[in-house]
Design a protein that fits this description.
The protein has a domain of 199 residues: Spore Coat Polysaccharide Biosynthesis Protein SpsA, Chain A. Helices cover 49% and strands 15% of the residues. An 8-stranded mixed sheet has the order 3-2-1-4-7-6-8-5, sandwiched between helices. Strand 1, helix 2 and strand 2 form a beta-alpha-beta unit. The radius of gyration is 22 Å and the shape is globular. The relative contact order is 0.14. Keywords: Glycosyltransferase, Membrane, Transferase, Transmembrane, Transmembrane helix.
Length: 381
């Protein structure tokens, strides 16, 4: 049994991280050319909620106001009980295209998001973050992707890495972008990224207060209503990578918590009746979310089999892998320069450790969907 569980764990890990992308590449269909213009450009409301974002909120709103969008564009922006000058800066804008909401009480992102959408009037909503920057035609590109059967469009987020930053989140994100592009061609795109995506307002379903990964849940709810989700790599946004693994770790723990909550509410997507969408959900999401469990199972089973020379060698390999990850993470967080190989191993281990911590917090089940800011490059002294 130990032998079976060991190789099952290893096989599933190899499948989700290595074989699944190859399978997607094989299955992917050619994309249809996108129209370059519309006869009528619909009204769009941008939904932006913020908490303690005084360092970037002014620049963010200016970036949105500068969008090259031919139709009517309106921005609904809220400060969720910020303790800094976010609310003051929001209200300082004297532009009829901006409607500010400055809540005194900090209720959490989801409560604010539900309120903003309830007050929106446009048929199309663009959802984004305060620390994101759109390319000039980003909203135009998002709207061009909509057809009657498409309910949500995910844009492409480019993570910006400043010199000396050894957090490999940017490299992993490019890997994720490849998966999103391929899944989109199959009609099996799983969620969106919160920095840049658009939806049809009528399809929005209010989220539970303890939701964390709102971008994933919103889009999965739209898919459940039998609308397609597509990826548009021409709709571009930019965001800074967290300056270190340590700064990124807390965010990933929280995302992990949100992933497990989302899993419990998206069991419908596991059914084989969902076709290719179900295959992608199992392969890209479910196995990834349970990768820490598989890694731990592989290590325990391997330890119980070390009487064999083969399994002793494999056990030494696993221990060496985790040792490199621990030492590499320590060096990276201290600012020491390490090789790209060590960066990748450290990031992979850190990512899955954070996911494991998220699972523990999910089991405790005592947190609401509030706010946690991740440090950014310009904030590090």
């Amino acid at each position: 049994m130990n032998v079976f569980l060991f190789w099952l764990s290893i096989s599933l890990l190899l499948y989700t991280y290595v074989l699944y992308p190859i399978l997607l590449k094989y299955l992917a269909k050619p994309t249809k050319p996108q129209p370059q213009t519309l006869k009528h450009w619909p009204d769009v409301d941008v939904i932006l909620s913020a908490f303690n974002e005084e360092l970037c909120i002014t620049q963010r709103l200016e970036n949105l106001l500068a969008q090259d969008y031919p139709g009517n564009l309106h921005i609904l922006v809220a400060s969720d009980g910020s303790s800094d000058n976010t609310a003051v800066l929001i209200k300082a804008f004297n532009d009829e295209r901006i409607t500010p909401y400055c809540f005194e009480e900090n209720r959490g992102k989801i409560a604010v998001l539900n309120d903003l959408v309830a007050n929106a009037k446009a048929d199309y909503l663009v959802l984004t973050d305060a620390n994101t920057e759109f390319a000039p035609d980003a909203i135009r590109q998002l709207i061009l992707s909509f057809t009657p059967d498409i309910g949500a469009v995910c844009g492409e987020l480019h993570l910006v890495t400043e010199g000396g930053n050894q957090n490999s989140d940017g490299l992993y994100w490019r890997y994720e972008q490849f998966l999103k592009r391929q899944e989109s061609t199959l009609g099996a795109l799983l969620g969106a990224n919160g920095a840049i995506y658009a939806i049809k307002r009528e399809l929005y379903q209010p989220l539970a207060a303890n939701t964390v990964v709102d971008d994933f849940c919103i889009v999965m709810n739209i898919k459940k209503q039998h609308y397609n989700i597509v990826y548009n790599e021409k709709a571009i946004a930019y965001e800074e990578v967290a300056p270190s693994l340590q700064d990124e770790f807390g965010r990933r723990v929280r995302i992990g918590l949100g992933n497990y909550r989302a899993f419990s509410s998206t069991l419908w997507a596991l059914s084989p009746t969902q076709g290719i969408f179900s295959l992608c959900y199992w392969s890209h999401k479910v196995l990834r979310w349970f990768a820490p469990h598989l890694m731990l199972l592989a290590l325990i089973c391997n330890m119980l089999l070390i009487s064999s020379s083969l399994y002793l060698t494999l056990f030494i390999g696993q221990i060496s892998f985790y040792t490199i990850a621990v030492i590499g993470t320590y060096q990276i967080n201290k600012g020491a320069k390490v090789s790209k190989f060590i960066q990748i191993i450290s990031f992979f281990a850190s990512m899955n450790l954070a996911l494991a911590f998220g699972f523990v917090r999910f089991i405790r089940n005592n947190e609401r969907g509030g706010w946690k800011r991740t440090a950014r490059q310009g904030e590090i002294k």
